[in-house]
Amino acid sequence: MNRRTREARTGSRTRTGTGIRGALAATAAALLLGGCAGNAPAAPPAPAPSASPLPATAPTPQGLLLTADFGADTVSFVDPERGTVASVTVGRAPYGLAVGADGRAWVATAEGVAVVDTRTRVRVARIPYRTDTGPVTDGEYRGGGMGIALSPDGAHAYVGVNVPGTTGVLEVLDTAGGEITGVVPVGRRPFDVDVSADGAEVYVTGHDSFDVTAVATGSLRPRRIEVAPYGTEGGLASWLKPHYAVVRPSDGQLLLPFEGERLAVVDPRTGRTRIEPMTADTHQHGAAVTADGRILVVGTGAVRPGDGKGPSLTVRSPDGAERVHPLQGPHEDVAVSRDGRTAYVSGGFTRDGYWNGITVVDLDTGATRRLAAGTRPLGIAVL
Question: pLDDT, tens digit, for every residue of 162-180?
Answer without folding.
Answer: 999 999 999 999 999 999 9
